[in-house]
């Protein structure tokens, strides 16, 4: 990287001197530096309060958040630069915040306190001329420092690159996104030592070649730059400025249209696009994400009472619009304790020193007694006749006692000694989902979670998101039928599987010849298949469907006797080369009416009308991987797998 200062020059700043050459008349933009962590419970609340104030004061502050390495295990985005800023200020607890030189806890900030900082002035101004990042994640900056009054040599110039929203450093404090996270300090954490300024001096700095690939950056089009000058003798902030960093590459938008199986728009669906951000669908089921770089993104869509959708979005060289279909939830029971512990749940604690309580939507089982007396949370009566799996989250133990959670049920809900254990779990520092097959249970059950003690006392852990899932058995496809085409090919067709999100459905076609065994001959995403050419033999077929990795039982079996082959009407398809890098060439002896391309999870990527026996397809821009081609003629459908190198 190159850090270069251009010689002192007169600029527009000089006009200020006509009014007052010696007084500090430039407003001092408050620099807010926050020390925080995704593993600090109080930091969550501190950030909420801070955001509530700053959201009403956009453009009137500069903000840097240093993610620190404690409490254990520490924020995943903690850096050595953040640690050195901790040492610089002598920070010993988080959350902690400094506004200019004033130390405070974030939740003590309010509008009145913030306004008091806006009245401060300084003798230096900062103008950011440009801040750009290219498609290789290389950053270039140009900015001016203007002194309205004289300054001695020895001040420190700092620049911080922050990401305005990060999603991948989630810890255990309940926060799911983080704002203005420091990624890199420039030219380094010690800063750039400034020469003296005479009144009226303007110094220009041009820094280039700054590589952001070695940072925790998630999205290059979501960055901001903070320039500040500081006096190390007393930590005084001389001036600060903050500006968004401009991406020097094309960005696109992704529009999601979310509805249920009947086509009704779903309002309030929570969407997360990994590395891009979060959002909620409006009354039309619509949600738009702007300024997205070309790439593949993992997307999660969730809504109460609906099955979560997990899919991928591919943005290549244009804006995209995706229809998302959500199914009604198959959960038989769900409790997330968002409103506390419900009244029909039971708590057993036989020691006055033990506690079961809710905090931040999670139940805490807190044991202080040395005696291993029953300490448990018990569910209301739940019928499990149609249930197969119970799921729950355990974690966030106190990192030293290694507690054990015993899961089971009470034979008599009034007697904690009637507890029957089904499984036990070593509780982790992070929230972890556990599943238990309970398909062998029947009737009404009072499930129970018991703190079984640990290596030390006090000892605690948290419990959340208890759900009961129905059987995952997938119904077999129905009404499979067969049509003999010219005694050489057969058309198979069956009823489409009744599921909203067709992207998760795969059909498997099985064939048996004469007295042989059934073999799987293809896997496709549509409810029709043409098989052939066939020899003069007896054939049987059945179809199964696979949804989310679970395959159904076979459909009804259909059969046909092929007595001869009529060569003239046999459709033939040739695709070459395979694997391919740049172009695919397709040839057929019958006209291909429609050509379609699917990715490996069944998403339709391309569909074109052809009406031709031969054509080529450029695939140079496709990502490496497996693709499925589908050809439709006037009397057949043919599928073929190709590999993009």
Mean pLDDT: 88
Chain oligomer state? single chain
Largest sheet: 6 strands, antiparallel
The percent of residues in helical segments reads under 10%
Binned strand content? over 45%
Describe this structure in words.
The chain has 645 residues and is mainly β. It has 5 domains: 26-247, Immunoglobulin-like; 252-330, Immunoglobulin-like (Sandwich); 334-469, Jelly Rolls, CATH 2.60.120; 481-561, Immunoglobulin-like; 573-644, Macroglobulin (MG2) domain (Immunoglobulin-like, Sandwich). Helices cover 5% and strands 49% of the residues. It is built from 3 helices and 48 strands. The strands form 11 sheets. Strands 24, 26, 27, 30, 33 and 35 form a 6-stranded antiparallel beta sheet that branches.
Describe the structure in brief.
The chain is mainly β and 645 residues long. The chain is built from 3 helices and 48 strands.
């Amino acid at each position: 990287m190159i850090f270069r200062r251009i010689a002192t020059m007169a600029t527009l700043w000089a006009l200020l001197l006509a009014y007052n050459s010696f007084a500090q008349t430039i407003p001092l933009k408050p620099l807010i530096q926050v020390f925080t962590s995704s593993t600090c419970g109080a930091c969550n609340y501190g950030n909420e309060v801070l955001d509530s104030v700053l959201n009403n004061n956009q453009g009137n502050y500069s903000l840097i958040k240093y993610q620190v390495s404690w409490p254990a295990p520490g924020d995943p985005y903690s850096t050595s630069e953040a640690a050195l800023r901790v040492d610089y200020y002598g920070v010993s607890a988080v959350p902690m915040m400094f506004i200019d030189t004033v130390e405070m806890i974030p939740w003590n900030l309010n509008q009145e306190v913030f306004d008091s900082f806006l009245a401060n002035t300084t003798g230096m101004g900062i103008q950011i001329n440009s801040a750009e990042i290219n498609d290789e994640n290389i950053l270039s900056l140009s900015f001016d420092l203007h002194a309205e009054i004289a300054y001695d040599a020895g001040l420190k110039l700092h620049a911080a690159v922050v990401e305005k929203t990060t999603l991948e450093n989630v810890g255990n404090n309940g926060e799911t996104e983080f704002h203005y996270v420091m990624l890199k300090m420039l030219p380094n954490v010690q800063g750039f030592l400034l020469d003296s300024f005479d009144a009226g001096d303007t110094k220009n700095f041009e820094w280039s070649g700054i590589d952001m690939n070695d940072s925790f950056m998630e999205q290059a089009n979501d960055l901001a730059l903070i320039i500040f000058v500081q006096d190390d003798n007393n930590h005084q902030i001389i001036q600060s400025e903050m500006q968004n960093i401009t991406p020097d590459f094309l960005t696109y938008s992704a529009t999601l249209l979310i509805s249920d199986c009947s086509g009704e728009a779903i309002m309030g669906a929570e969407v997360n696009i990994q590395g891009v951000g979060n959002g909620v669908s409006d009354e039309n089921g619509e949600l738009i994400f702007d300024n997205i770089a070309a790439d593949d993104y993992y997307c999660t869509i969730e809504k109460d009472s609906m099955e979560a959708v997990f899919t991928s979005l591919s943005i290549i060289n244009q804006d995209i619009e995706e229809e998302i279909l959500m199914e009604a939830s198959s959960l038989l029971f769900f409790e997330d304790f968002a409103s506390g512990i419900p009244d029909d749940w039971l708590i057993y604690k036989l020691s006055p020193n033990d506690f079961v309580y809710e905090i931040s939507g999670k139940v805490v089982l807190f044991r202080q007694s040395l005696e291993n007396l029953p300490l448990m949370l018990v569910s209301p009566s739940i019928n499990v006749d149609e249930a197969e799996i119970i799921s729950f989250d355990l974690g966030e133990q106190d990192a030293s006692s290694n507690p054990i959670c015993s899961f089971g049920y009470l034979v008599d809900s009034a007697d904690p000694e009637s507890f029957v254990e089904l499984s036990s779990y070593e509780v982790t520092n992070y929230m972890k989902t556990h599943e238990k097959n309970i398909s062998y249970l029947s009737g009404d059950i009072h499930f129970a979670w018991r703190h079984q003690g640990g290596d030390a006392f006090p000892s605690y852990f948290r419990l959340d998101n208890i759900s009961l899932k129905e059987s995952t058995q997938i119904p077999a496809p129905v009404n499979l039928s067969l049509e003999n085409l010219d005694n050489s090919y057969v058309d198979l067709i069956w009823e489409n599987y009744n599921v909203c999100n067709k992207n998760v459905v795969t059909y498997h076609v099985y064939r048996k010849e004469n007295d042989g065994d059934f073999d799987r001959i293809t896997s496709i995403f549509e409810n029709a298949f043409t098989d052939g050419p066939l020899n003069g033999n007896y054939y049987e077929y059945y179809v199964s469907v696979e949804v989310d990795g679970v395959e159904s039982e076979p459909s009804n079996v259909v059969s046909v006797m092929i007595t001869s082959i009529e060569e003239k009407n046999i459709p033939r398809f040739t695709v070459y080369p395979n694997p391919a890098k740049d172009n695919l060439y397709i040839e057929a002896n019958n006209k291909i009416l429609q050509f379609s391309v699917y990715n490996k999870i069944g998403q339709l990527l391309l569909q074109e009308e052809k009406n031709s026996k031969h054509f080529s397809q450029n695939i140079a821009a496709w990502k490496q991987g497996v693709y499925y081609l589908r050809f439709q003629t006037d009397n057949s459908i043919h599928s073929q797998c190709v590999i993009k190198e």
